[in-house]
Design brief:
By secondary structure, this protein is of the alpha+beta class. It contains 7 helices and 7 strands; from the N terminus they run E-E-H-E-H-H-H-E-E-E-H-E-H-H.
Amino acid sequence: MGRIKRKSTKGVSAVTVIKGNDGPTSVFIAGKPMDQNVFARIKTAYRKRKYHRKRAATIKRIKAESHTLDEVIDYMIKQYGAVEPDKNSRQVKEGYRNVKGALVERYAPHLPGTPLKELRPKDFSDTKAVEEYIKLCEEYQKKAADVPEELFPMDYHLYVIKIKNMGEIQVEIEKNHQFFGAGFSGAPGKKKYLDKILRDIYSYYGVTKEDIADNTDRMKGLVAVLSS
């Protein structure tokens, strides 16, 4: 969460800032896009059209059927043998800080200081301004993760599903703000199997009629997973 990627090609610097699963997503680019030949542009356009068609078809198939976070936890334990690591483990502590940073930015942006949206550069073609903003983002996320518990209570849980010779699925849940996020890492050639389990968990969590009508984050998350 709060991942930062940098890449440089042909002397043109591109900087991308990507926020977390449930938090706001922002993409900023400094400099001109990398030149593409006509075949690459056609391929990119084809992939975009294919994804949008799949996404539209996915939205039509989704029906209002939802479960609570506690019900999802019970389902993962019974269906896939999910376990909750020790709360003092490095894995849980890192997940807690990452999720807290994103949630503070969303629900209490003034707690760590000046909200990031007020610090955004006016001109994203200004490389120096963008680089400075990235530094401010990193500092803000650290301060957000260190906000005292009494000011921003968290009920964070991490569940891990380990599948022998396949890989591992991680599901993060924060009950106070109804946060739900998941991902996996797996052995080569096992992505489809792990992705199937991930889709099943997201589908079980599901959406309500209100989520569909208002296109909430819960709805967007389900669509993104089922369309991937």
